[in-house]
TrEMBL record:
Keyword Transport: yes
Family in the record: Belongs to the leucine-binding protein family.
Pfam name, any one: Peripla_BP_6
Protein name: ABC transporter substrate-binding protein
SUPFAM superfamilies: Periplasmic binding protein-like I
Regions annotated as coiled coil: none
Provenance organism: Pseudotabrizicola sediminis
Domain (Leucine-binding protein): residue spans on this chain: 43-395
PROSITE patterns, sorted: TAT (PS51318)
Taxonomic lineage from the root: Bacteria, Pseudomonadati, Pseudomonadota, Alphaproteobacteria, Rhodobacterales
Keywords: Amino-acid transport, Signal, Transport
């Protein structure tokens, strides 16, 4: 795709300029004493790219925090499978929620910084272009934080040598949506909301997107055309939904777009019994921004403090990770926190198991052989559903009035994964 531009190789002067642009492309490294460096076999560079700013910033909200926690836990070094100790430098980069920026950063990190492992996180707009650069320039790349079809299918759907990814699949998310709706009494008419971008095109695909399992479950589907991201007018979509008499809204949006849509639904007298939207309803901040209208919204759930796994780096369970975040940040835990941690668990595990973590080929072999249980669950690339993919648990959740925080996310559906029982039943939205 044309907007995932490959980076033209550049020289020392460009690298110097990029390093000078600290505000736009911030790199954080852990200083290691000279005496410690002398005792290591070399410095291994890991590049962590995520949307720290821009419209997708909520997805990357926990990344910088988690990277620093992992730095602190490791103390700047790790021991590899060959018995040698290496210095670890984690270079953080902000994709600014822009796929072109993500591709540019990845190219610079691979070609100029000569990193040994690429680690893109959080959203297709960051992960996919980094994957493309990694495959092009033969750099090992481990990622998480986007439905696996969204980072595999746009590249042709075949097998890849350098890029591996762990997350749930679009099919699992779609079946979770249907599971949520099956828990409500409705007229089984669903209006679907999709943005005009790669996520919208994936979720709205008539061959494998949300319309497929929805129709198969006996629901009538209305899709009034895709909307432009960050639009300020959903009147056409709302009119189509009202005319079709839909009881349910499903799809994918980002937080600002959903706030605009829900506000205009209320203003125009359109009050569905369920609004189940991917992406925008993942975060407490996104729900709180809608005020009273946030109560009862539903979504897929990637991770919660109830997950029964411990960190391979800190030993903490999910509840402890969430509690520490809330104590340190004075903010409610948010779903990407678990995956920020799990992604770094896998990345560090790859380097530790590598026969030579300063060799990209050795790191690629270690990546393909991954078999680890993270705070988000087991990660192993066994060839199903795809050579380069490991699928992860997913649940259905609903936002309800909270106790310590304005809203709490409750698990209300486990039809796709039975890792634990629902906390309560889903209820209709009260407008």
């Amino acid at each position: 795709m044309t907007y995932y531009n490959t980076l033209v190789k550049s020289g020392i002067s460009r690298r110097s300029v990029l390093r000078g642009m600290g505000a736009g492309i911030a790199a954080s490294t852990l200083a290691t004493p000279t005496y410690l460096r002398a005792q290591t076999a070399g410095k291994v560079k890991m590049a962590y790219i995520s949307p720290a700013t821009g419209p997708l910033g909520l997805f990357g909200e926990t990344d910088g925090y988690t990277v620093q926690k992992i730095r602190d836990a490791l103390g700047g070094t790790f021991q590899a499978a060959n018995g040698s100790t290496y210095e670890l430098e984690i270079l953080e980069r902000d994709s600014q929620s822009n796929p072109n920026k993500a591709a540019e950063l990845a190219g610079d990190l691979i070609l100029n910084e000569e990193v040994h492992l690429m680690v893109p996180a959080s959203t297709t707009d960051t992960i996919l272009p980094v994957m493309e650069q990694a495959e092009l320039y033969e750099a090992p790349c481990i990622s998480s934080g986007a439905p696996w079809q969204a980072v595999i299918m746009p590249r042709g759907g075949g097998d890849f040598d350098w890029t591996y990814h762990f997350f749930w699949g679009l099919d699992e998310a779609l079946n979770t949506f249907v599971g949520l709706w099956d828990g409500l009494e409705t007229n089984k008419k669903v209006g679907m909301l999709f943005p005009q971008n790669i996520d919208g095109e994936t979720w709205g695909n008539n061959d494998y997107g949300l319309p497929v399992p929805t129709r198969a479950a006996g629901y009538e589907v209305t899709i009034p055309g895709y909307f432009q991201p960050r639009t300020n007018d959903f009147s056409a979509q709302i009119a189509a939904f009202k005319q079709a008499g839909v009881d349910i809204i499903g799809g994918i949006t980002y937080p600002d777009d959903l706030k605009t849509f829900v506000t205009q639904c209320n203003q125009q007298g359109f009050k569905p019994r369920a609004v189940t939207v991917a992406a925008a309803l993942l975060f407490p901040g996104g729900v709180e921004a809608m005020g009273e209208l946030g109560n009862g919204m539903s979504s897929e759930v990637w991770w919660t403090p109830a997950f029964p796994f411990n960190s391979t780096i800190t030993g903490q369970n999910s509840a402890a990770l969430a509690s520490q975040w809330e104590a340190d940040q004075k903010r409610q835990w948010t779903q990407p926190l678990g995956y920020s941690h799990a992604l770094l668990e896998v990345a560090i595990d790859i380097l530790k198991r590598s026969t030579d973590p300063m060799d990209r080929e050795a790191n690629r072999e270690a990546m393909a052989a991954t078999d680890i249980t993270t705070v988000c669950g087991p990660v192993k690339f066994g060839g199903t559903p795809h050579k380069n993919i490991c699928t992860m648990p997913i649940f259905g959740g609903q936002w309800v009035k909270g106790e310590s925080w304005p809203y709490d996310l409750k698990i209300v559906d486990n039809s796709v994964n039975q890792l634990f029982e629902p906390e309560q039943a889903i209820v209709p939205i009260v407008w």
